[in-house]
Specification:
The protein is of the alpha+beta class. 40% of the residues lie in helices and 11% in strands. The strands form 4 sheets. The chain has a 5-stranded antiparallel β-sheet with strand order 3-4-5-6-7, with helices on one face. The protein has a 4-stranded antiparallel β-sheet with strand order 9-10-11-12, with no helix packed on it. A hairpin with a 2-residue loop joins strand 10 and strand 11.
Length: 565
């Protein structure tokens, strides 16, 4: 994570930087309740169920309160519910939150010589060392785990857990008993995570980061080589999971999840002698990965809900802002041709114009508990987490040019974005997207005049029956043949061009061709079928406003569809 020399250097940077000093003060304030009393540790491992964590009356997700292990409030109706399944859903976030808080406290201890923070961080480390083997390795969904139901969550957890230990050790604040306990936990976690390789899943990127952290703790060169340079290691994920245009093959949602894991793993990889930002091929791909979500962002600073993504999630979430802050800091060290100026422009636009409702993320729980229900707010670089305090730049450039992404084709991903003024239009070609893909080839998205006219619905909860609707062609603005969802397959982008206020794209999926032309005053959408046999072609348009069919022989008929429900 960091060395003793890097801790000393960072202390000096924090003293000189108004932003870092303000962030340090924010982290001390957030730590006050933790210093007052030790939060409760879950008695059980986490459990994934269809009802745990959801209000039985209205189906809303229950609020996560790290100080309330047995009473869980519904933010929609206000009811408080109890029960083992809700408690074990709470445990999922609590285990992650506690490990993150240990790293948070250890950061304060290291950069501020904070004795009480060091003692509380050590107490959390020892508490888990004493009870880690009490949590059974069963009731799992995706791979072995003691604390959770999936291996990738164990990997996120061990990364924070070991970050706390390494920071305390670098500051000379880790005693021998705590060291022995951490070592025992890390050894068992290595066995669990190492036994479950998920290939090129976004989750494996976290498994690699977790193994890289464990390798750093043990100074294990063989484990480090596997996690970083192995056939499904961090470097292969960077070069194969993220395409030439930088986008992760499963879309923006999983792109952001995998990118945080990759940047986390890159921090650990430095200690194994692998600097992802120093090698040209790797740094070029990482630069593209950092820029891909800004290039495809909607005008309201949300990311499109493509494939299995939640709808309407802001890119101004602190969990995402930290990606660009940390990435910019590392790219900025090698500024020539690094893409750092574009990231500075993007961050300036986020801080100046974006608003967001804070969301709950497995990989980022710094803002929890979210009580009372949070109102939309603007992001701030002085209200991020311990990770940003350690790694982001002391200040952003004051003269970054205005953010202006324009029309763009993400070539390897097959996504074309056509921009004209405040209008955003995209056509989805490219790969299906693996297990998180949808039968939505040639889907059309449009956002204009502050309204999301034609949206991709994304995906709700994986445990809900609505998932069958989200994963149908009819749920999208995409063509289907003969009243059936598209069979799994890829689409191609045959042509793309952009000049001034005009841009156009032509995509092909099987026998269907879709051409979209964007001009300053209008949008033209043409769908063509070339076939030797008769077919029924349906083109759903899910308007957020009123639709009208006029001219020629077209009619508009309101009706219910019996399929895809």
């Amino acid at each position: 994570m960091v060395t003793a020399e890097e801790v000393v250097a960072r202390r000096e940077e924090i003293t000189r930087s108004p932003d870092l000093s303000a962030l340090h003060a924010h982290l001390r304030e957030r730590a006050a309740p933790l210093l007052a009393r030790l939060p409760p540790l879950p008695d059980a491992k986490a459990l994934l169920s269809s009802d745990g964590g959801f209000c039985p009356d209205d189906g809303a997700m229950l609020a996560f309160d790290p100080w309330s292990p047995a009473k869980h409030r519904c933010p929609r109706c206000g009811n408080v519910v109890t029960g083992e399944r809700h408690d074990r859903n709470w445990a999922r976030f609590q285990h992650l939150w506690l490990a993150e808080r240990a790293a948070h406290l250890a950061t304060l201890a290291a950069v501020g010589d904070d004795g009480p923070a060091a003692r509380r961080a050590s107490e959390i480390l020892r508490a888990y060392a004493a009870r880690y083997w009490r949590y059974p390795n069963r009731d799992n969904v995706l791979g072995p785990s003691r604390l959770f139901f999936s291996t990738y969550l164990e990997s996120i957890w061990i990364g924070h857990y070991l970050s706390a230990a390494v920071l305390l050790r670098a500051a000379g604040m880790l005693d021998d008993d705590t060291t022995r306990g951490v070592t025992q936990v890390a050894d068992e976690a290595a066995n669990l995570i190492g036994d479950f390789d998920e290939g090129f899943s976004n989750r494996q990127t976290w498994n690699n980061a977790g193994l890289a952290a464990i390798a750093t703790w043990f100074e294990d060169e063989d484990l480090a080589r596997r996690a970083i340079e192995g056939p499904t290691g961090l470097l292969e994920h960077l070069l194969r999971g993220f395409g030439r245009d930088g986008m992760w093959y499963e879309g923006e949602n999983y792109h952001l999840f995998a990118l945080r894991a990759l940047l986390t793993g890159a921090v650990w990889a430095r200690h194994a002698g692998v600097d992802v930002f120093a090698e040209r091929q790797l740094s070029t791909r990482l630069q593209a990965a950092l820029l891909a979500p800004p290039l495809t962002a909607l005008p309201d600073f949300t990311f499109p809900a493509r494939k299995d993504a939640r709808f309407g999630v802001s890119l101004a979430q602190p969990a995402y802002v930290e990606l660009w802050e940390v990435g910019l800091a590392r790219l900025g060290e090698r500024r020539a041709g690094s893409g750092a100026p574009r990231l500075e422009s993007w961050l300036a636009a986020l801080y100046r114009s974006a608003v967001m409702k804070p969301e709950l993320f497995e990989s980022y729980l710094h803002d929890a508990p979210l009580e009372p229900p949070p109102a939309p707010r603007s992001p701030s670089r002085t209200a991020l987490s311990w990770w940003a305090l350690l790694f982001m730049s002391p200040a952003l450039s004051a003269d970054a040019p205005a953010w202006s992404p324009g029309s763009v084709l993400l070539d390897s991903h097959g996504l074309a974005v056509l921009r004209a003024g405040g209008r955003y239009v995209s056509l989805e070609c490219g790969r299906y997207g693996g297990g998180h893909g949808h039968p939505d080839r040639l889907h059309l998205t449009m956002h204009a005049g502050g309204a999301h006219w034609l949206a991709d619905p994304g995906t709700g909860a994986y445990t809900s029956r609505d998932l069958f609707w989200y994963r149908s062609t009819l749920a999208h603005n995409a063509p289907r043949l003969d009243r059936a969802s598209q069979p799994e397959g890829d689409a191609t982008c045959d042509a793309f061009d952009s000049a001034g206020e005009w841009a156009w794209v032509r995509g092909r999926y099987g026998e269907i061709v879709r051409t979209v032309i964007s001009g300053p005053a209008y949008l033209l959408d043409v769908v063509e079928l070339a076939s030797r046999t008769d077919h029924t072609v349906e083109l759903p348009w899910h308007f957020s406003g009123a639709g009208d069919v006029g001219g020629g022989r077209g009619t508009w008929t309101s009706a219910d569809l019996a399929d895809e429900s």
